[in-house]
Amino acid sequence: MLKIIDKLEEFISASCLAVMAVIIAVQVFQRYVLQSSLDWSEELARYLFIWSVYVGCSYATKKDRHLEVTILRSSFGPTVAKFVTIIAYICTIAFCICTTVWGFQMVDFLAGTGQKTPALEIQMYWVFLSVPVGMCLMAIRTALRIVSIIRGEVDFSSPACK
């Protein structure tokens, strides 16, 4: 199941960024060379970017590439550093769960209103669905990081490592 999630995250993020780049390039060409513009291009690029960011958050968690302030953790020995990291990850999971729940509530609300995007006229909840999907995946990835720490798969002997 995790391999499917891995591939899906990679595909969604890469596809969104690639399509976004093409759309923006076409829009620039249309605007400055042909002196006309596509009404929907900027909106679609924005929504693709939103999806790539939230799905990319989960992927960055898997690869351990999120920005961190490690001064507290690196000032302690390996045992305390391990504990501090687990506590930080638990806080991250709590944040992700809250954001997932509230995100699904917002999606449900928007689905009920029938609100559509201005240019594309797609249901607005499709855009907002990126938040709970991305945060749910990030919570799963963070929980897996905790498991790998508990199993001893992460080296805390060096201050720079975790």
TrEMBL record:
GO terms for biological process: C4-dicarboxylate transport. Its main location: membrane. The keyword Secreted does not apply. This is TRAP-type C4-dicarboxylate transport system, small permease component. One of its GO terms (molecular function) is transmembrane transporter activity. One of its GO terms (cellular component) is plasma membrane. Keywords: Cell inner membrane, Cell membrane, Membrane, Transmembrane, Transmembrane helix, Transport. The lineage of its organism: Bacteria, Pseudomonadati, Thermodesulfobacteriota, Desulfovibrionia, Desulfovibrionales. It is a multi-pass membrane protein. Residues 20-151 form the Tripartite ATP-independent periplasmic transporters DctQ component domain. The chain crosses the membrane at residues 12-32, 44-62, 83-104, 124-144. It is found in: Cell inner membrane. PANTHER family: 2,3-DIKETO-L-GULONATE TRAP TRANSPORTER SMALL PERMEASE PROTEIN YIAM (PTHR35011). Belongs to the TRAP transporter small permease family. InterPro entries: DctQ, TRAP_DctQ.
